Every structure is written in structure tokens, then in C-alpha cells.
Amino acid sequence: MAGITARRHRKRKLKAEINVVPYIDVMLVLLIIFMVTAPLLNLGVDIDLPQSNAKSIQEKKDPVVVSVDPDGHYFLALKAGSNEAVTAEALQAKVSAIVAQNPDVAVFVAGDAKANYQRVMDALVLLQSANVKKVGLMSQPDQAQSQAGR
């Protein structure tokens, strides 16, 4: 009997291979999950200026808001509720000074729906020349869509 068990142990050699079949199964399941969820990850926001479905941005500090009224005049709001009329040169100088002190300050452009779009683009060019890295366009929620969602 001792001879039979010795033969069985000699015939069975240890395998030095890794069984990769479970890893392939897991990889295929993850691939399917990513393929299904990838189209759902739409990072852009559809904006129909001046109204959109964009959610409000929560900032720790008050953002700098540049407003363009229907007549094309510029207004600068450094704190909530403080709106002062400025010329294009003064706007560029003041925003440039603010960005020099705090490069990560949030800058938004609020253009009136009836304002000339060229004036809004001019405001964006002024902000670009004032070394502002990122500029956001402000919009108000569409009243028809917000009431339909209730």
C-alpha cells in the first residue's frame, strides 16, 4: 500500500502556472460596466443663453461678476450686491489687479438677453487680456423647465 501512494505523489507534479480565467472574467465584466456607463457621463452642460438647466456653483469666496446691460455698458461686482459701472479700460485694470492678488478667483460674465452678443465677447476678450484663466457665463434657470420638473 505504501508503494501505491508513493506512485500517486510522483505522478502529480505541482503546476507553476497561474490560472488567468477568473481574471479574464472580471476584466470582461468591468469592460461591460464601463461601456454601459461611459455614455451616461456627459460632462458638458447644455446652455441656451441666457437661460439654461445649469446648476448653481457653490464657491467659498465671492466671485467677480462682470455684467453687460442691454445698452452694452459694463458693470463690475466684487461682492454680492455691489455693482459699479466701469469703462472697458477700468474693467481690465481692476480685474487684472484682482487676478494678480488671487489667481484662482472665480470670474463670471452675466450678459443681458437683449445685449449685443459682440459686447459680451468684448468683455471676454478684456478678461483674457487681464490674465484671467477661466471665465464662466452666467445664466438663469428656464422658468418653464423648472415648473415642469416640480
Q: Can you put this structure into words, describing what you see?
A:
The model is unreliable at 44-48 (pLDDT under 50). The chain has two domains: 2-40, no CATH class; 50-148, Nucleotidyltransferase, domain 5 (2-Layer Sandwich), CATH 3.30.420.270. The strands form two sheets. Strands 5-4-3-6-7 form a five-stranded mixed β-sheet. It has a three-stranded mixed β-sheet with strand order 1-2-8. It is built from five helices and eight strands. The chain has 150 residues and is an alpha/beta fold.
Number of strands: 8
Derived structural class: alpha/beta
| Count of the separate structural domains | 2
CATH topology term of the largest domain = Nucleotidyltransferase, domain 5
Low-confidence stretches: 44-48
The biggest beta sheet is recorded as: 5 strands, mixed
Level-1 CATH class name of the largest domain: Alpha Beta
Question: How much β-strand is present in the residues?
Answer: 15-25%
Order of helices and strands: HHEEEEEHEHEEH
Task: List the quaternary state of the chains.
Answer: single chain
State the strand order across the main sheet. 5-4-3-6-7
- Helix residue percentage: 40-55%
**Distance between the first and last residues' Cα:** 82 Å
Second CATH tier, the architecture of the largest domain: 2-Layer Sandwich
Helical stretch tally:
5
Transmembrane segments: 20-41
Subcellular location: Cell inner membrane; Cell membrane
InterPro entries: ExbD, Tol-Pal_TolR
Function: Part of the Tol-Pal system, which plays a role in outer membrane invagination during cell division and is important for maintaining outer membrane integrity.
